[in-house]
Design brief:
By secondary structure, this protein is mainly β. The protein has one domain: Porin, CATH 2.40.160.10. It contains four helices and 16 strands. The longest helix is centred in the first third of the chain and has 21 residues.
């Protein structure tokens, strides 16, 4: 009996100790639930469709853990469950720990590449996030319009996007500097990066991530058909400041990785700029240059431009992406027999409205054309609209 009493006292003391230790940590739960209705207005292979409309639902759940010591040292973690829906189940694409202080920020785990942070310059995203949107819902060229129109995403809003073959799920270490009069820099290192479609037919951009991209343990020490690169380093420099109500941002990044399993090396560069005026107008342009991707060591250039206007509960924007690719680039269509992409044109108009705190609606009209050197081109126009509840 005494043993049980002693055990009970010990468990109570331990539980109290854990509670005291955890009392310093703040845990924030946030995310969103979204609904989208889509209409395929026209597309090259429309004769193969049984219907031209449908609904989509989805959600995201994110846990942010944080504490700040008396000395000012901040540390925490993030767990993000993305694609929470009946098709994908739950996809976890962020699991990392960070430590932040006067020295900057160190991040360990599955976090975005520096190329995706600094190399991403898009005015529309800045304004729609102020309404509580984002995460591809009402997100313009970075959004879900291609769910209905059909798109191989032959453009790049940042150097890790589609064409580049990288993914934020890849496990890495990252350093981000503090700001020095508006200037900051960052660098990261990823031992192995891959994609599920790397060994497939080669159609589209071959997105996704590989099991051999951080969580594989000993499996990460050997390459397989899904492994794309090793020893990936991305770095960037950013300048952000405000002058009399006008915000200015300039950014540049570079990335390099060794191709494995017969893949070519990864080499990419970006230069971008964004300006936002006090009257609500914002504009951006971002150039992404791929000197080489896992498909081929052929140059691919993608330029993304956007002009947006936000006031009160409204955001209106128009975005355009243009891509030109050197002959023999390995990019081919998932929807036609088109091979060896020559140029891509993507245009999208977005209208966002904040209905109530946390509740937003969006409507987007998109047009895209893929032109190939061999085979049939692809062209589509689609309309999407929906609501998102953020919490």
């Amino acid at each position: 009996m005494r043993k049980f009493l002693l055990l009970g006292v010990c468990l109570a003391a331990t539980t109290a100790g854990i509670g005291a230790a955890q009392a310093e940590l703040s845990v924030k739960v946030n995310g969103w639930v979204g609904f989208l209705a889509g209409l395929s207005i026209s597309r090259t292979d429309s004769e193969n469709l049984d219907r031209d409309y449908d609904f989509v639902s989805g959600a995201r759940l994110q846990f942010d853990i944080k504490n700040v010591t008396d000395s000012g040292l901040e540390y925490g973690a993030r767990i993000r469950m993305n694609n929470v829906d009946r098709k994908n189940g739950v996809t976890v694409d962020r699991t990392y720990v960070y430590v932040k202080g006067g020295f900057g920020t160190l991040t360990f785990g599955d976090a975005p590449y520096v190329g995706a942070d600094i190399g991403y310059v898009y005015a529309h995203d800045t304004l729609n996030s102020k309404l509580g949107l984002g995460a591809s819902w009402g997100d313009g060229l970075d959004g879900k319009f291609n769910l209905f129109g059909g798109s191989d995403t032959f453009y790049a809003v940042d150097p890790t996007y589609g064409i580049g073959g990288l993914n934020g799920k890849d496990t890495k270490v990252k350093y981000s500097s503090p700001s020095f009069s508006g200037f900051s820099f960052a660098i990261d290192f990823t031992p192995v990066a891959g994609g599920k479609n790397a060994a497939a037919s080669g159609h589209g951009t071959g997105g996704g991530t590989s099991d051999h991209a951080g969580p594989g343990g000993i499996n990460d020490l050997t390459n397989d058909a899904t492994t794309r690169y090793e020893n990936v380093v991305t770095a960037g420099i950013n300048y952000a400041n405000s002058f009399d109500g006008t915000s200015v941002r300039l950014a540049a990044s570079a990335g390099n990785g060794n191709g494995v399993s017969g893949n070519h090396d990864y080499e990419a560069y970006t230069v971008g700029g964004q300006v936002g005026f006090a009257n609500g107008i914002a504009a951006s342009v971002n150039w992404v240059h791929f000197a080489s991707t896992f498909r081929a060591d052929k140059a691919i250039d993608s330029i993304t431009g956007d002009i947006s206007y936000g006031t009160g509960p409204f955001v209106v924007s128009v975005g355009y992406a243009y891509t030109t690719a050197e002959k023999g680039n390995g990019l081919s269509s998932s929807f036609t027999n088109g091979t060896d992409l020559q140029t891509n044109h993507s245009v999208i108009g977005s209208f966002l409205y904040n209905v109530a705190p946390g509740l937003n609606s969006f409507t987007e009209l998109a047009y895209e054309r893929n032109e190939f050197r061999v085979g049939r081109d692809f062209e589509q126009t689609s309309l999407t609209t929906g609501v998102v509840l953020a919490f």
